[in-house]
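Let's sit down with a protein and look at its sequence and fold side by side. Which protein we use is up to you, so please pick one and set it down. Label the sequence line and the structure token line clearly, so we can match residues to local backbone shapes. Go ahead whenever you are ready, and we will take it from there:

***
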Amino acid sequence: MKRILTRPLTILIAIVASFVPAGVATAASAGPIFRAAQVVGQDNTNTETNLDFLFAIYIITWAGFFTYIFIVSRRQRTMEREIEGLKQLLSQRQSAEKG
């Protein structure tokens, strides 16, 4: 099961990483002091510039959630069918042993 879950997680991480600006990746590798100085030195007065990224992450998160729910419900239906088939098989064998 672990192998099945790593592929969608890897894809999700790749998608999220593609939305991260290049400057964030270089600032993250420079250390906390450099990042703090960079954030303080920024004159970003337009607060709507990051709304695109927020919206993208919001959409990706909900899409991932609904995909997960879809996969789990599909697996549950499959297991319910298998259980019903096993119950029928068991009842057939029990009736064959009695009769």
About this structure: The mean pLDDT is 79. Residues 50-99 form one domain. The radius of gyration is 25 Å.
